[in-house]
């Protein structure tokens, strides 16, 4: 793999695909550069690929799986970068949930189409098919994946990558992953592991809810670890994965420290504000009367509770003493032009903040404030969807049995131990 030649030449000695080009010896120098480059000069995977003059794609028919946030560090889309390069023969585009231009609603199937900008076919991987078909892959030699993730297990772009990797490995198509920062940084790992019975398209990897790896690290770990990809072992080992890393990114960087502009990854993740809010409130508002600001300018960061005064909600949240968070009353307008008073979540201490704590305290409050409990009264479809996102049968059963008396902090403590075990498991696949 290209990444092995650059940053960790001794870690993966077996079945690795090294880039056998004249500059192979000079790229070892990048290991030192990774530690010293200033934030403003960070190169994303696509930037590095450009610097290499697209050498690994020469002579190959290229498919590109991307979305609007797939851009270089100048803000130019990877589609345009490939289209304008004489070195890249781009023959097909592949789109995840929300479509290649990000204008499709969540959970709404997307159809195949012809891209009006390039004239290329766009194969939807969130429509009739979630996994690329033999026909789709027959048109390409290599599938380049350039997706900006948000660091959360249920965000479907990483699921899309997994399915694409499996299909490519099964059909002898090379996979190239262009790396990007995890916007939650590379140190935050939090929330429950997912039980095998709940794995789905919103939980396609056996990992904590907040996973703490980049999308390329995730690809590398899944390629190297038995049982992560749903292919037989021979196919996994034979599959060709090439990773193009970033230069200058470090694990403890927050997104603002990268100097990069944030481009919305989906309609309800328009800003970094909402990126941080997504793991904090997404699970907590899935069942019950909490609402988390969808339809306002602060999606996932603005809490209301139907039938409850916002001042009382704020007092209850303040009393939880959740590390790294504080709460402010705010009045915002929604998309209907209505003014809504609610509680804005302030991330006051990044280092102390545990991204998922608030969500589970929200569930505890829902059980306290609602009669009957929204969890005990959930329909079969509601409970299945909830558990596919949360992933912990033990939490669900305890929440049903004990309601507001559930020992949330005990679960949080145990999940921290599970998260550390996951970090230990993946540590040798970390690239930065």
In short:
The chain is α/β, with parallel strands linked by helices and 432 residues long.
Topology:
Elements: H1 2-6, H2 30-36, H3 45-51, E1 61-66, H4 78-84, E2 89-95, E3 113-114, E4 121-124, H5 134-137, E5 142-146, H6 156-170, E6 174-178, H7 215-224, H8 233-238, E7 241-244, H9 255-258, H10 272-281, E8 290-291, E9 302-305, H11 310-320, E10 325-333, E11 339-347, H12 357-369, H13 380-390, H14 393-402, H15 408-426
Parallel strand pairs: 1-2, 1-5, 2-4, 5-6, 6-7
Antiparallel strand pairs: 3-4, 8-9, 9-11, 10-11
Helix pairs in contact: 6-7
Average pLDDT, all residues: 90
CATH level-two architecture of the largest domain: 3-Layer(aba) Sandwich
Tally of contiguous helical segments:
15
Characterize the main sheet.
Answer: 7 strands, mixed
Examine the coordinates and then state which fold CATH places here, giving the name of the CATH topology of the largest domain.
Rossmann fold
Percent range for β-strand residues: 5-15%
* N-to-C CA distance: 16 Å
């Amino acid at each position: 793999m290209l990444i092995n030649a650059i940053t960790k030449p001794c870690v993966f000695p077996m079945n690795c695909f090294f880039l056998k080009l004249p500059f192979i010896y000079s790229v070892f120098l990048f290991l030192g550069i990774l530690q010293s480059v200033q934030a403003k000069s960070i190169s994303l995977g696509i930037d590095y690929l450009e610097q290499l003059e697209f050498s690994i794609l020469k002579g190959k028919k290229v498919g590109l799986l991307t979305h609007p946030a797939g851009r270089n560090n100048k803000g130019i889309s990877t589609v345009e970068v490939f289209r304008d390069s004489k070195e890249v023969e781009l023959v097909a585009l592949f789109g995840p949930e929300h479509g290649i231009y990000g204008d499709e609603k969540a959970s709404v199937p997307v159809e195949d189409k012809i891209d009006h900008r390039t004239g290329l076919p766009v194969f939807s991987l969130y429509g009739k098919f979630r996994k690329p078909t033999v026909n789709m892959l027959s048109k390409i030699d290599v599938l380049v994946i350039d997706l900006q993730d948000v660091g959360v297990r249920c965000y479907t772009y990483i699921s899309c990558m997994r399915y694409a990797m499996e299909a490519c490995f099964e059909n002898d198509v090379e996979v190239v992953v262009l790396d990007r920062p995890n916007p939650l940084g590379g140190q935050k790992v939090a929330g429950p592991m997912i039980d095998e019975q709940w794995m789905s398209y919103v939980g396609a990897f056996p990992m904590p809810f907040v996973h703490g790896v980049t999308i390329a690290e995730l690809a590398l770990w899944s390629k190297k670890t038995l049982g992560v990809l749903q292919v037989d072992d021979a196919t996994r080992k034979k599959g060709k994965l090439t990773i193009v890393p970033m230069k200058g990114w470090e694990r403890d960087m927050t997104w603002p420290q990268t100097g990069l502009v944030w481009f919305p990854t989906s309609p309800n993740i328009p800003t970094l504000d909402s990126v941080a809010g997504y793991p904090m409130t997404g699970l907590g508002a899935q069942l019950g009367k909490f609402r988390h600001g969808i339809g306002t300018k602060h999606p996932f960061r603005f809490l209301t509770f139907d039938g409850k005064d916002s001042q009382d909600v704020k007092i209850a949240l303040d009393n939880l003493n959740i590390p790294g968070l504080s709460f402010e009353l705010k009045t915002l307008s929604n998309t209907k032009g209505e003014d809504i008073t609610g509680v804005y979540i302030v991330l006051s201490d990044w280092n102390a903040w545990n991204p998922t704590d608030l969500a589970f305290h929200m569930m505890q409050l829902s059980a306290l404030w609602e009669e009957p409990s929204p969890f005990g009264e959930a329909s079969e479809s509601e409970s299945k969807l909830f558990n596919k996102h949360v992933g912990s049968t033990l939490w669900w059963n305890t929440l049903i049995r004990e309601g507001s008396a559930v020992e949330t902090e005990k679960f949080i403590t145990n999940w921290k131990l599970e998260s550390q075990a996951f970090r230990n498991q993946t540590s040798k696949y970390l690239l930065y």
